[in-house]
């Protein structure tokens, strides 16, 4: 019998060729072994969730594509992020512009006296607080919808810890680029950096899953078109978040299994160092 080059063989039935992998552990599985799951197909071991014998307790635990634990609530971190944004949005409505002045990111901010304020004056917290801050209802609703929809796709694929790290780095990277490139005294706020980071991660995941990339590419193109054609939008935060999200997601889902943690943590650390370098360089230029 002729065989097709490039096809894998089922780990339980070596005589059976297959092009299907378990969505959790990535072992090749044939049609007899694959079990339908909420995301693709899983092998019997992952479905059993470690109930077999002769292995360490976590050896057969279901894992995400990036190696994280599969959680019962696949949107828990997304819900927490939305709750933080909602709490700050309500606080802004109650307190007013004073809270926005205290938490928003300001590009190259100078007082009329020439005194520096903001990140360049040591208020580094603005790099993160600005990524959860909203002032207008349409802006808040648009970002929360994006966080809920796209986050609901990305979080189950990465797992909670990796997903939270990606979101924070995307928000921080968007703020760092906005701090570097924004005009003097321009305010920047909103979760757009995080949302665009998730868009970048979604594109990487779709490519990794060998899905049809045309809808994803169209969505990314329309998102960038929206970014650069609408006035008053911080394109720097969008682009910074998009690039960081794509880079971190790529490292997470393509890391070799034997060195997965090292590659994933190293990639996150590298992005963090780049952000730190950008902020330090900009602050030095201003002072």
Automatic annotation (TrEMBL):
The keyword Transmembrane helix is assigned to this record: yes
Enzyme Commission identifier(s): 3.4.21.-
Main location: membrane
UniProtKB keywords: Hydrolase, Membrane, Protease, Transmembrane, Transmembrane helix
Its membrane topology: Multi-pass membrane protein
Residue ranges of the TM segments: 76-95, 137-154, 161-181, 187-206, 213-229, 235-253, 265-285
GO biological process: proteolysis
Peptidase S54 rhomboid domain span: 122-253
Enzyme class: hydrolase
Subcellular location: Membrane
Gene Ontology molecular function terms on file: peptidase activity
Family as reported in the entry's similarity comment: Belongs to the peptidase S54 family.
Name of the featured protein: Rhomboid family intramembrane serine protease
